[in-house]
């Protein structure tokens, strides 16, 4: 049931609004407040799915109610009720976050359509928040070792800024995880994080992938196409395995970082972009620079903040927590109860040489869950871990 609050000081209009909404849908529970102050108190104490709020009211006007409510419960959509002389103010309230406005006397069809659209928008906001929490949990950093604690502290400091970050570490250590955490904790998290695996894209296509192209730029360019930088506008672009990027593409990335401009392949037209760049590599870029395979000026542009993700062998104290996390996650995926690992099994796994890092550990945990007994024992580890 959707709870709707009507804040209106004119009792006749308030009664009409309550009557219309109550009769329109039996799933609407409509409550009322006779001035702005009472309305704001109700919003503080109760959870509403929608607020219809008059603009001109005693004690506290509608604009003040909107601004105050947005600070405490920003997810509630507001529909402002405006008299003829309030139209300019009503339009301005939309800049302050109102969903829409309706004029007095209210047109029945417009009122009901606006209410339905506002409630649909509220549902989408809630779904997005739930999805975001799920996504955040999928990219949760597991571990309380000194090495991981240092990274978490760095992310807390760096994420709210727009500083570019270069993440280094061997394959399977969780560089992508760090990139996601930086984006999730940044001010850009309402906008997209666009991932580009530079090693997976042929060198002749990387520029088109990153910057887009115009029709006719090359044989298969049958129409204009936006690139990843444009898709990430106002958000974050994650350039994974940037050490594998061609020198030609590196030059264009450098220009994008210097000037906040890109140009599509085959075009001279500049496109302004506002993108935060997070990059990752498993290569030693200083050696790549010495070998002439990576631009030194690009390195210094990217490496404003350096985060080195440790190998699993360097954070063995986190292995029990990781085993528990993977066991619970795999059980949820398979619809079964999580399996317990015996202390001896965990000790054995802590002593292995994890050349494949966390990715390898996850695979081993899944194998042991499938092939082991009700409780994974040291014997199961010896039989199935294949070390």
Automatic annotation (TrEMBL):
Residues 3-119 form the Response regulatory domain. Signal peptide: none annotated. Keywords: ATP-binding, DNA-binding, Nucleotide-binding, Phosphoprotein. Residues 141-370 form the Sigma-54 factor interaction domain. PROSITE patterns: RESPONSE_REGULATORY, SIGMA54_INTERACT_2, SIGMA54_INTERACT_4. InterPro entries: AAA+_ATPase, AAA_lid_NorR, CheY-like_superfamily, P-loop_NTPase, Sig_transdc_resp-reg_receiver, Sigma_54_int, Sigma_54_int_dom_ATP-bd_2. GO terms for biological process: phosphorelay signal transduction system; regulation of DNA-templated transcription. It comes from the Bacteria. CDD domains: AAA (cd00009). One of its GO terms (molecular function) is DNA binding. The modification 4-aspartylphosphate is found at residue 54. This is DNA-binding transcriptional response regulator, NtrC family, contains REC, AAA-type ATPase, and a Fis-type DNA-binding domains.
């Amino acid at each position: 049931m959707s709870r709707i609050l009507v804040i209106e000081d004119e009792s006749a209009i308030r009664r009409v609004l309550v009557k219309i909404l109550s009769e329109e849908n039996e799933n609407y529970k409509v409550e009322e407040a006779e001035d702005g102050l009472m309305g704001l108190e109700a919003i503080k104490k109760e959870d509403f799915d929608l607020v219809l709020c008059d603009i001109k009211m005693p004690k506290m006007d509608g604009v003040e109610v909107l601004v105050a409510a947005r600070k405490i419960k920003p997810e509630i959509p507001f529909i402002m009720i405006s008299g003829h002389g309030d139209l300019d103010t009503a339009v301005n309230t939309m800049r302050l976050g109102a969903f829409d406005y309706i004029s007095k006397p209210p047109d029945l069809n417009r009122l009901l359509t606006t209410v339905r659209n506002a409630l649909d928008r509220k549902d989408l906001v809630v779904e997005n928040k739930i999805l975001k929490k799920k996504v955040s949990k999928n990219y949760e950093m597991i571990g309380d070792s000194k090495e991981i604690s240092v990274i978490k502290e760095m992310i807390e400091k760096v994420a709210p800024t727009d500083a570019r970050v270069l993440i280094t570490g061997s394959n399977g250590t969780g560089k992508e995880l760090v990139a996601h955490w930086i984006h999730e904790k940044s001010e850009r998290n309402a906008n997209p994080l666009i991932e580009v695996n530079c090693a997976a894209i042929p060198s002749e296509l990387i520029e088109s992938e990153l910057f887009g192209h115009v029709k006719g730029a090359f044989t298969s360019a049958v129409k204009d196409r936006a690139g990843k930088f444009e898709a990430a506008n106002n958000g974050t672009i994650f350039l994974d395995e940037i050490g594998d990027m061609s020198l030609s593409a590196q030059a264009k990335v450098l220009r994008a970082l210097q000037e906040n401009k890109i140009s599509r392949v085959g075009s001279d037209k500049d496109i302004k972009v506002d993108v935060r760049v997070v990059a990752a590599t498993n290569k030693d870029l200083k050696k790549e620079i010495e070998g002439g395979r990576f631009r030194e000026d690009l390195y210094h542009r990217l490496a404003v903040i350096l985060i080195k993700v440790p190998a699993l062998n360097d954070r063995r104290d986190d292995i029990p927590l990781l085993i528990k996390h993977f066991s619970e996650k795999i059980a949820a995926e398979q619809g079964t109860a999580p399996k317990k690992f015996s202390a001896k099994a965990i000790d054995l796994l802590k002593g292995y040489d994890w050349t494949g890092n966390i990715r390898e550990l996850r695979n081993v945990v899944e194998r042991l869950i499938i092939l082991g007994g009700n409780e994974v024992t040291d014997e199961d580890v010896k039989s199935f871990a294949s070390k």
